[in-house]
Amino acid sequence: MEAAKEAVREAEKALDAAKEDEANFEMKVGQLKAAWEEAKAVLDDLESKLKTCSEELSALSKQRTKLIEKAEAAEIEGKKLSVKITKFHSEQAKAEKFLKHMISKYAWIETEKEAFGVAGGDYDFEETNPSEMSTHLKDLQAEQTSLVSLSHRTSSRTICHLHV
Fold it and tell me: Is residue 55 situated within a structural domain?
């Protein structure tokens, strides 16, 4: 019986040691679980920040693309304006050259230039539209050509009848 008592005592010691080990393991499990939960919370927070940063980065990327497109459009528009300005300067130089030529060819322009653009005057370009006048002149010239041609045909017929 003594052996049985000894075996019970040994078993109780082993049980107490196992319970102590179990308590230690449970404490370690609790500590590890707390550390895991803390790490998971930190990870969740970092993932949330990462998602926010990713969304901001995407929005900034879209905004950057739009700004690049606007800059390219502005650059193209600037080039177009530059071409227009160059063309304007070229046309201005041609007009100035033509004006000098006209003034040297027609002396009356120099003496009459003060009357140009005066309301109600002979050279009132608002009242008399030069492009309309030019069209009217061309119409009159065409009519004159037609009449001259008709006159020549009529004259030819008359001459032919006289010879017959």
Answer: yes
